[in-house]
Design the sequence.
């Protein structure tokens, strides 16, 4: 009995040790990969298409080396039609979430709506840039953290890890001189939780990258000189010069969405494999 108990203890300790080593390895390489992407952005224009393409290629290569997969590796590779459906469904969800945030912000006078004459070329470029940045960030800020902590944390804690990673990345990108730093970081953390929930619910990143793309496009070029021109009110509620991304009204609109995601995974856990 004693010897059997000892063997069980050793096995458990070995599993924990192996898990911690795996977490440390993936986190370490993930940080190096994130640093390489930041370096590319520093050397090249962070907003240029060429820079974003190179960043995405590096992120894709590095994430692949860490066994981060866009689709569930336990299932057969999905057909292209299924991938398009997932990305399109995610984009619709991201735009819908953006509409909820915009309507709430406008109704509370954080934003004011002004008409605008959109240029199709600019809208197309904005959508392409949103797709590149969404795919890059989903790999770095959701795919790698989920891969690192999948065996070490319960599902709802995985969401918090991803939210923390997104908030930390946003904090690092900001400067203390900006008035809306707090809102920027909170919005990044809340959207990180929501997008991570989509990764986990869909058992892959296609739906999440579509949602991130839809959110970025709808809250960026689409409402800032695109279909509409939304102007922020002064003060923290509207975001002032920081605009939509620095508005505490947008933060308030995202809190229920993130809370629903945390509550669902806290109660139900990961979805079962079919």
Sequence:
């Amino acid at each position: 009995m004693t010897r059997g108990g000892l063997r069980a203890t050793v096995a458990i300790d070995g599993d924990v040790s192996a898990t911690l080593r795996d977490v440390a390895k993936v986190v370490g390489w993930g940080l190096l990969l994130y640093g390489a992407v930041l370096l590319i952005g520093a050397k090249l224009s962070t907003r240029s298409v060429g820079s974003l393409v190179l960043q995405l290629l590096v992120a894709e290569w590095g994430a692949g080396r860490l066994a981060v997969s866009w689709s569930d590796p336990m299932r057969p590779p999905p057909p292209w039609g299924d991938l398009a459906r997932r990305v399109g469904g995610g984009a619709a969800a991201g735009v819908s979430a953006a509409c909820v945030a915009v309507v709430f912000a406008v109704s509370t006078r954080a934003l004011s709506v002004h008409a605008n004459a959109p240029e199709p070329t600019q809208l197309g470029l904005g959508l392409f840039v949103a797709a590149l940045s969404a795919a890059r960030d989903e790999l770095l800020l959701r795919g790698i953290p989920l891969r690192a902590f999948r065996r070490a944390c319960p599902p709802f804690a995985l969401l918090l890890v991803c939210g923390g990673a997104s908030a930390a990345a946003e904090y690092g990108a900001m400067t203390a001189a900006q008035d809306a730093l707090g809102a920027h970081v909170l919005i990044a953390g809340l959207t990180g939780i929501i997008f991570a929930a989509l990764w986990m619910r869909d058992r892959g990143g296609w739906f999440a990258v579509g949602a991130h793309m839809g959110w970025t496009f709808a809250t960026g070029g689409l409402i800032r000189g695109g279909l509409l021109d939304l102007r922020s009110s002064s003060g923290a509620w509207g975001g002032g010069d920081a605009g939509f991304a620095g508005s505490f009204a947008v933060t308030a609109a995202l809190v229920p969405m993130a809370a629903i995601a945390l509550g669902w995974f806290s109660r139900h856990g990961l979805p079962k494999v079919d």
